Structures are given as structure tokens and as C-alpha cells.
Amino acid sequence: MKRDDRELTAWLRRTGSLEVVRALATLLPGAAVVLNDGEGRVLLWSPEAERLFGWTAEDVVGQLAPTGVLCDDEERVMRPFGARVSVLRKDGSAVRIQHWARRFGEDGAVHVFSLDAPRETTTESGSDVMEFHGILTRDPGMKRALEVVRNVAETEATVLVRGESGTGKELVARAVHLESGRRDGPFVAVNCAAFTPTLLESELFGHVKGAFTGATQPRKGIFAQADGGTLFLDEIAELDLDLQSKLLRVLQERTFVPVGGTTPVHVDVRIVAATHRALREEVRAGRFREDLMYRLRVVPIFLPPLRDRPADVELLLFRFLEQLGSRGPRRVTRVSPEALRALLAHRWPGNVRELVNVVEYALAVGRGAEMSVDDLPPEFRERAVATPEPAPAPGLRPSSAEEADRVRTALDEAGGDLTAAAQRLGVSRATFWRMRKRAGI
What we know:
This protein is an alpha/beta fold. It has helices at 3-15, 17-27, 47-53, 57-60, 140-152, 169-179, 197-205, 222-225, 241-253, 279-284, 290-296, 310-325, 337-345, 351-365, 378-385, 400-413, 418-425, 429-439; strands at residues 32-36, 42-45, 83-88, 94-103, 109-115, 119-122, 128-132, 135-137, 159-162, 187-191, 230-234, 255-256, 265-266, 270-275, 299-302, 334-335, 370-371. The protein has 4 domains: 3-115, PAS domain (Beta-Lactamase, 2-Layer Sandwich); 153-302, Rossmann fold (3-Layer(aba) Sandwich); 306-385, Orthogonal Bundle (Helicase, Ruva Protein, domain 3); 400-439. A 5-stranded antiparallel β-sheet has the order 2-1-5-4-3. Strands 10-11-14-9-15 form a 5-stranded parallel β-sheet. A 3-stranded antiparallel β-sheet has the order 6-7-8. The longest helix has 16 residues, at 310-325. It is globular, with a radius of gyration of 26 Å.
């Protein structure tokens, strides 16, 4: 044992190790501290843990920790260091936390928790990075969208999130909920494209016993489950026209009738909807009700695709390498220049979700601390053999038809305001003017 360790051990014996641990637990401002033994029983539950989770020390000390506080499953698998998760408090409400833990072999672990508040950080290179409820970006256009999210969350306005698949629409919807006064209520998400119209009606509004064949018990619908909270309707453009009229009635009257029922049910629900389609185009095509569109897009938020956020590709790459690497045997600390060039030149049709899949693939097939181009999926390796095409400038697309569609959509959403439309695309007014000219708009 080193001399410093011997002196520290002697000091701890004199002062009492228990008192030192308790003092440290109360000296960490805004942080909850929990200690558990090897069986998962709580040994220490700090005053801040009482405030954060709702259980008192008397409730939990000597018992197994409340479900979901220290880990995500019954097998007590430790979360990744610094994990951001949502935890249910004693009263059933949810709280978003960041969790750091250190295990001491089979003898237990020390856990430190803090509220996962949105924040802006500065990287070592000095460039501003914004992290907001799990959304990480340094892209100016994305930052502006998140500022709108933060502001609109304080109101009860209905929000429509526009963006391609994989851009993070559900994360934005959760951020609206967590930043709002409804944060202690439920957040319920449903994908409108995942059900047939008949099933979706029952899913949304519930049904009474005997409403249809097989309805042997009454069922509480998603609207009722989300009462007092936020309901996220993903892929809203896929909603059947008949269901659109029923949804409009709920938005107007705050009531609905379960399938097969006769008694109206009152609900207090905030709607956040999302789609990858332009609703104005859907209205013109006769596939979407114009009155419902205006009800849903009180505050439209456009999420730029990853190909228009080149600065975020490298940023998110290293974040996912860190997060996913902590769960498996391989830890990647650097990326070869060839691999990084291939990733930056990619068009990312699947956006952030595709990037996550690429990182998972690379960690699984490769070995060593460096990620090389050979670790990437075949389409990246094939591109790397040929001369890579230069990455397109932010806000531009190679297809003039696609660019024209983006310009029209931005103008529609901005009500014809050129400056606001340019901001939605994350480009300057001059660049937007040139884009309009090329598109002939």
C-alpha cells in the first residue's frame, strides 16, 4: 500500500468512513447519490435522491432499489457511464436524468444522478455544440429548430414536425413534452402508418365490450392513456380521411366516443404530429383535410436531413462510437482519414438512424481501436475505391426537382417570407434566392 493510501486509510478510520461518505453525498450540488450492495439493496439514499425520485431514505434503505432507478431491467445490467434515461418517480411521473455509476466487483456500486437538462457545451476546438434532450448538433439550422422547440414547449400550441425518416422527429416531440408544463404527465407515441384504419381507430379511441368480433373486454385508447400529457402522432399524413374527421373533432371539442360506444369521453391532451410529407401537397391531392392541416400545423418545425448537416456527421459519429462501444467488447477511439472521407461523402438517405446502423456494423465486424474503411458496409467500401465525389454544400441537393420541392415547402411553411424560408433551410437569403432562381419559382 502506498504511503498516501495508508495516510488516507488512517484518516478515514479516525473520522469515520460512513460520515465521510454521507458528507460527500450532500456536498454534490444538484446531484443524487445512491449506494447499493452486491444484492442490489440500497445502503445510502441521499437527500437529493429523495427529492429527485420521490422515495424517502426510510422507504428504500435496506430494500431493493425501486424498479428502473439503478438499471433498465430486472437483471440489473449497469447502464453505460453517463447514460441519459427517463425514470419513473414514486408518484408515477417521469423524470429525465443522467446516470453515472461505478461498480466495485461483487460488492455493489456507487451511483450519481442529475437532471438531464438541455444545455449548450463547447468542444475543445471551440465550436459550439448544442445538446438538447438527447439531440446533439452544431448545425445552425438545427439549432434554430431546437430554439423553436424550446419556445413553443412553454405554450399549448399544436406542433407539426416535418422531416425525413430518421431525422429525430420523435426525439423532438419528446423534447416538446419534457420542456412543457405537461412533463409530469404521460408521453404516448403512435405510428399512424403501422395500423389499418379500423385498428387505428380502436387504438386511438378505444372500444367498448362487444364493439366488434373479439372485443370481449373494453379497451382504453391512446387518447385516454395520454390524458394530461402529450400524444405524438407520427406519420400523420398516412391517416385515413374518415379518421382525419374524427381527429379534427377531438382537437376542436376535446372529446371522443370509443368505438361502439355512445358516451363522449373528455380528454386534456396536447398533440404533436409528424410527417415526412408536405401536407399542402397532400391537401392539393385530396388525401388530407385542409381544416385538419391548419389545426395541426399551428407551429411547423422543419428538421434538416443529415446530408444538409455535414458538421454533425463527425460529431454524431464519435458520440455513437462512444455510446455503442461502451456496451460491447470493442472500443474505437479514432477513425481513419479514408473512413471519415467515405462517411462525409455519403448522402445518408436514412439520416441519423442510418448512421447509428453503420456504427453498429463497424463495431461488430472490425477489430482494434481504429475504425478503418474496411469496417464500413460494402457500399462505403465500393465508393472509397473510386474517386469520391465532393460533399454537397449545406442546403443543396443534386436533384433540381428535389431542390425545387424543398424551396416550395419552405416558402409554404414560411408564408412566403423569403428570410424565414431561407432560415428553415439553414442557408443565407442570397443562397435561397439563387435556389429559387434555379428552380424557376
